[in-house]
Sequence to fold (411 residues):
Amino acid sequence: MEGRGCFGNFLERAKPFIAMISLQFGYAGMNIISKVSLSRGMSHYVLVVYRHAFATAVIAPFAFVLERKVRPKITFPIFMQIFSLGLLGPVIDQNLYYAGLKFTSPTFSCAISNMLPAMTFVMAVICRMEKVDIKKAKCIAKVAGTVVTVAGAMLMTLYKGHVVNMIWSKHIHPHTSSAPDAAAAAAAAAADKDWVKGSILLIIATLAWASFFILQAITMRKYTAQLSLTSLVCFMGTLQSIAVTFVMEHRSSVWTIGWDMNLLAAAYAGIVSSSIAYYVQGLVMQKRGPVFVTAFSPLMMIIVAIMGSFILAEKTYVGGILGAVLIVVGLYSVLWGKYKEYKEKEAEAIPEPVKGNGGNNQMVTIMEDIEANDIEMQRAAAESSQNAVPVAAITAPIPQPPMIAVEAPKA
Fold:
């Protein structure tokens, strides 16, 4: 029984970690499939519309059935927060992210998005959702981990180095001539301009994503129905994305979609990356906070780099490997700080009862006093029953053993 209890406690504590790691695999698949779809000419505005239409259709029935009795009323402030969530997430973040992904590569897009933990941490501190005390080891770990994570992402962006030939590179990567011609040089210059443009779009998208996490955490304090909130955000994002698409795309042919990669990209992104991801993130965020959720995003970059080398024949560089190592180090530094903070909150919520300083002798003395009080109460009751004149028996409350709440030592 003790073994089952220990395993159950371990599984309960590991649920947030398992959920967030699984989400990173889902996000990685979305990046690869979306890159293929965008490269074939699909409009990213239309992709966002179809993505959230699928998400709404999948999660809305569950929200309607499972939360019909616990769904809070939507007040005007909550409606404005949901409206802002739809604008920050589905419209601004995902449109700019898809545009940046189209101009760059999946691995590079994930590397830029690794600024998300730093942006979220800074915004959480500004909104007083995170406390920073440099004297404590946990805060130093979170700050240092955030800086190291961003440094790793920037290293991947600014430094490439030599190509690292993987075991499967000879069979996947085509051999090209090393002598560039004028057409290749012009194409490389155009690609560099698009690369800069894509980088700017990705940075703005990451900022919107961090704002989405912070606002989602604030909204869930008052609107506690996670499924309903997810479906409302997806539905609101669908309507807003339709309006943006009508403004930006004037060709009716962009809305055409068949049984091809475009449909797979929209359905996969809507079901996995929007509906399931929003719901799971909301659950984990309630227990661990927004910084814990965003701290797992560097893992997505490593997964995409491996999948991209297989599927898209992307080349792996020395700078990418070094940046990935730094990102993993920063990731676990942030998680260590969050784990220490979580343990302290648990200790404060459940104080530990301990014995007094007197040891066993003091406990025995207290028990003897309780027994003496019981005997006196019985004698008083017997005397009052024998006397005709009513006697008011005044009894003092029984002293209880002292329960001293000792706070667990802080890191």
Strands lie at 163-164, 316-317, 352-354, 404-406.
